[in-house]
């Protein structure tokens, strides 16, 4: 078990701690309810995502320990938690794409992450919450490997500002085992993103609702294969 940072990892920790110090919490105290794009851009420029994106898709081949050192440095100096939650959520997207994405999906979406685009993961339904297997968002198969997505999500981090979204849904006419994941852009036809939620805390982590009304999809939008056991537990 690794208990101490290497010299390189300590340098990484120090560099990202410095970025955390540059964030301005006063903007939040003055009532700004927005994503801290300036800090996000600094993290991207400093190579945070290159650490965990595979070399074949634009990363630099470092492992997750370097990323963890960067996250620890950032957590040591940031005075608001929203950015940390955003980084963790984006790391989850990288991991999901790495584990289950096709080569074309990795090229597109990991490339967009390396360019600083923000993602969202839509799990919670208004009626079933975060019980993934009970989701009421339905994916209905159509002809020629096409699908239609219907349903709603709420309290979704980054919903108002994300450029692409991973949606947890369920194949229609399937039981709790029919869980599926689909990737779609924020400007997809049939997708409506609600106004930013007004919250008491985490003002720099914008959340909101989504509604899916016959969103047209094809097989290439699916992340992984539906109904695979590991598919539900990533």
Describe the secondary-structure layout.
Layout lengths: L6 H16 L3 H4 L7 H9 L18 H14 L4 H19 L2 H12 L4 E4 L15 E4 L4 E12 L6 E8 L7 E7 L5 E3 L13 E12 L16
Parallel strand pairs: 1-4, 2-4
Antiparallel strand pairs: 2-3, 3-7, 4-5, 6-7
Helix pairs in contact: 1-4, 5-6
- In CATH terms, the superfamily of the largest domain is Butyryl-CoA Dehydrogenase, subunit A, domain 2
* Helix content bin: 25-40%
Query: What is the helix tally?
Result: 6
The amount of beta strand, in percent, is 15-25%
CATH architecture descriptor text of the largest domain: Beta Barrel
Name the shape in a single word.
Answer: globular
Averaged pLDDT, please?
Answer: 90
**Biggest sheet overview:** 7 strands, mixed
- Strand tally: 7
Q: Give the CATH topology of the largest domain.
A: Butyryl-CoA Dehydrogenase, subunit A, domain 2
Count of domains: 2
Distance between the termini: 23 Å
Gyration radius, in Å: 18 Å
N-to-C SSE string, H for helix and E for strand: HHHHHHEEEEEEE
Supply the CATH class of the largest domain: Mainly Beta
Q: How would you sum up this structure, described in words?
A:
The structure is a single chain. With 234 residues, the protein is α/β, with parallel strands linked by helices. It is 32% helix and 21% strand. It has helices spanning 7-22, 26-29, 37-45, 64-77, 82-100, 103-114; strands spanning 119-122, 138-141, 146-157, 164-171, 179-185, 191-193, 207-218. Helix 1 (7-22) packs parallel to helix 4 and helix 5 (82-100) packs antiparallel against helix 6. It is globular.
């Amino acid at each position: 078990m690794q208990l101490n940072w290497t010299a390189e990892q300590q340098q990484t920790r120090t560099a990202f701690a410095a970025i955390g110090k540059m964030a301005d919490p006063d903007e939040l105290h003055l009532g700004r309810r927005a994503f801290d794009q300036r800090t996000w851009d600094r993290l991207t420029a400093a190579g945070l995502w290159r650490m965990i994106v595979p070399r074949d898709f634009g990363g630099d081949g470092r492992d997750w320990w370097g990323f963890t050192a960067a996250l620890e440095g950032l957590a040591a100096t940031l005075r608001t938690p929203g950015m940390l939650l955003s980084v963790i959520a984006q790391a989850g997207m990288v991991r999901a794409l790495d584990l289950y994405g096709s080569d074309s999906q990795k090229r597109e979406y990991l490339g967009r992450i390396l360019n600083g685009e923000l993602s969202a993961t839509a799990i919670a339904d208004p009626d079933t919450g975060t019980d993934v297997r009970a989701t009421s968002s339905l994916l209905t198969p159509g002809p020629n490997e096409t699908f239609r997505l219907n349903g709603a999500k709420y309290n979704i981090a980054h919903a108002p500002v994300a450029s692409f979204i991973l949606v947890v849904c369920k194949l229609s006419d399937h039981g709790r085992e029919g869980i599926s994941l689909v990737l779609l852009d924020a400007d997809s036809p049939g997708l409506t993103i609600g106004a930013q939620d007004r919250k008491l805390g985490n003002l720099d982590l914008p959340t909101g609702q989504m509604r899916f009304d016959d969103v047209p999809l094809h097989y290439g939008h699916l992340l992984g294969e539906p109904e695979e056991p590991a598919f539900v537990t990533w």
